[in-house]
Amino acid sequence: MPQMLIYEKIVVLDITKHKKTRVAPVTDFFFAASANSIPIAGVEFIEAAKEYPIAFIKNSQGAYIPTIILGLQDNQNLFVSKEGKWNGYYIPAYIRRYPFVPSTTNEAGKLNICIDEAYKGIDAEKGAPVFNEDGTPAPMLEKAVQLIQDYHMQMQHTNSFISRLADSGVLQEMKAEFGTRDGSKKFRLNGIFVVNEEKLRALEDAKVLDFFREGEFAWIYSHLTSLSNFPRMLDKFFAQPK
To answer: What pLDDT, in 10s, does the model give residues 66-75?
Structure first.
């Protein structure tokens, strides 16, 4: 799953190049219409589990990435309507931070703030300035930077959690197949990993206590609860306008 899957033309914000740039608020979600899954931070699990299946997908380096499933087919997001509206109460932070995104630098702990120059709201007449006249970040950019920094910090905690979860041996691949009642159409989900609850209960007390004290046990059970959203996604798929 490409980390920049909803972005097309990422450039680092530069005071010289972008001093006069204005950015309008996001008014539609067409930029995410082809994203059938996106990364999610652990702190988001509880809210996201009410609407989306949460699973774990391996990246090209073999690391597990916590992900919300948005579609049953490639390039399908069942939560973006034909009008570009987000059909869900909770909008994940990965989506909310658009059109901004961080990139890492050679300096430890420092992030570059980037923008997707393909975003149609750039240089809109009603857009807010990115920088003040004196070159300092304008309020709109300050708000975006705060969201990005918070998300980055939460993902660091999440990555630690996922690493310990994987090392505990409780993750297993879920091979799920969904279909219509008449069998005319089927969907197979591959490469998705979930927590095996039996293995979770068999963990030694010290590991369970570690997850609990870190506030992560609620994340695990939110993930397990969220899996009941798969049949609802199937209903959403067949309820789409033809």
So the answer is: 999 999 888 9
Using alpha carbons only, give the angle 37, 211, 110 rounded to the nearest 5 degrees.
Answer: 60
Query: What is the domain extent for residue 83?
Result: 10-238
Rounded to the nearest 10°, the torsion over CA 53, 56, 39, 105 is 170
Give the separation between CA 55 and CA 165, rounded to whole angstroms: 13
User: Could you write out the DSSP letters of every residue in 111-163?
Assistant: EEEEEETT-TTBT-TTPEESB-TTSSBPHHHHHHHHHHHHHHHHHHHHHHHHH
Cβ neighbours, 10 Å, residue 62:
7
Half-sphere exposure of 153 (CA within 13 A, CB side): 6
Residue 168: inside a domain, yes or no? yes
Residue 85 in any domain: the answer is: yes
What SS3 state is found at 31?
Answer: helix
pLDDT of 1 above 50:
no
Helix 217-226 vs helix 205-213: angle between axes, to the nearest 10 degrees?
Answer: 90
Count how many domains the chain has.
1
DSSP string, 79-101: TB-TTS-B-SSPPPHHHHTTTEE
What six digits make up the tokens of 137? 């970040």
pTM value is 0.89
Q: Is the pLDDT score of 133 beyond 70? A: yes
- Residue 93 falls inside a structural domain: yes
Residue 179 pairs in a beta bridge with 186
Q: Is residue 3 part of a domain?
A: no
